[in-house]
Specification:
Largest sheet: 6 strands, mixed
Distance between the termini: 16 Å
Structural class: mainly beta
Number of helices: 0
Radius of gyration: 20 Å
CATH class of the largest domain: Mainly Beta
Helix content: under 10%
Strand content: 35-45%
Length: 208
């Protein structure tokens, strides 16, 4: 923990949080009939989320040419920074489906593929390479982020599920929790799930 190793992890199907980038992979994704992206909600409602596509970088005056974000085999997408009304914002955490296609001159759709939206956990208060140790104010820990939902959020310390009485979703951008006295001393990973989708590991706490 004193010298944490920073790793990159690929999730397939993708799991992304607000402000995070992810890829939709396939074939012939840049053809006239597959150059838009559609989000399919659990109830079947569809939204055109082509505004999530990452724009191509400007060409450099000298080689090498920057890699393309949008190719025949990959669409690179980025979720908006806030959760709210679609498509300008990210959807609430949950499991969704994506597909490519177009609406003009006719309606075309590819097959759908699942992906998950997780709550975003903000660790910027402890910049790298410092270990992300969450410190309590008194006995209360505060987690900032985006996408927390009252009644649909769970907090765990490693495998210990905190009782509802021990945490509070203050807003979509903040939750607080306390540690039950029955938790043994040690170092624990803080895990946050919203609508069954777990955010990537972000914080540790040290219980004395």
């Amino acid at each position: 923990m004193a010298n944490p190793e920073i790793l990159s992890v690929d999730y397939s199907p993708a799991v992304a949080a607000p402000s995070q980038q992810f890829a939709l992979q396939g074939a012939n994704l840049n053809s006239p009939t597959s150059n838009n992206v559609y989000l399919l909600m659990p109830d079947g409602t569809e939204y055109n989320v082509s505004n999530w596509m990452v724009p191509e970088p400007p060409p450099l005056p000298i080689p090498p040419t920057p890699p393309s974000f949008q190719t025949a085999s990959r669409m690179t997408l980025k979720l908006p920074a806030t959760v709210g009304a679609l498509p300008a914002n990210a959807p609430v955490p949950g499991i969704y489906q994506l597909r490519a296609g177009c609406d003009l001159p006719a309606s075309y759709r590819t097959n759908s593929t699942p992906f998950s939206v997780a709550a975003w956990i903000d660790t910027s208060s402890v910049p790298e390479p410092n270990p992300p140790i969450l410190v309590a104010a008194g006995v209360t820990y505060t987690i900032s982020g985006e996408g927390f939902l009252a009644g649909a959020t769970e907090v765990l310390l490693d495998t210990i599920l905190l009782p509802a009485a021990n945490f509070n979703v203050v807003s979509g951008a903040e939750l607080t929790f306390t540690v039950p006295g029955t938790v043994a001393a040690g170092t624990y990973t803080v895990r946050v799930r919203v609508n069954g989708v777990e955010s990537p590991p972000a914080w540790w706490v040290v219980i004395l």
